[in-house]
Amino acid sequence: DLDECAASPCKDHQHCLNTDGSFSCKACDASCVGCTGEGSDNCKACASGYMKEDEKCTDIDECNLPEKVCVKENQDCVNTSGSYKCVCSEGFEDKDGTCVQT
């Protein structure tokens, strides 16, 4: 078997998987910018919203940062994978970008 992966035939956001007589390109983990294999522990660099922790790229919980990211009144932060979103608190709804009582 020839290791086609040695020639790096895959795109930057993929890793190469050598198979018997061939190869396949697999997508890198969402937490990676470039990778050498499967999973968040094989990232070349971490994607935006992720940081290297115990040799893995892990999600940054923007909602637990010392500096508040959702600064509007009656607004809560919801952490998402690699990011966050600001939503109106319970009992409030978004009216033209302001959280007003329902």
UniProtKB/TrEMBL annotation:
Q: Which Pfam families match?
A: EGF_CA
Which InterPro entries does UniProt cross-reference here?
A: EGF, EGF-like_Ca-bd_dom, EGF-type_Asp/Asn_hydroxyl_site, EGF_Ca-bd_CS, Furin_repeat, NOTCH1_EGF-like
UniProt GO molecular function: calcium ion binding
Region forming the signal peptide: none
Question: Any idea what this protein is called?
Answer: CRE2A protein
Give the EGF-like domain ranges.
59-98
Species of provenance: Mesembrinibis cayennensis
- List UniProt keywords, sorted A-Z: Calcium, Disulfide bond, EGF-like domain, Glycoprotein, Repeat, Signal
Query: Which PROSITE patterns would you find in this protein's record?
Result: ASX_HYDROXYL, EGF_3, EGF_CA
Family, according to the entry, reads as follows: Belongs to the CRELD family.
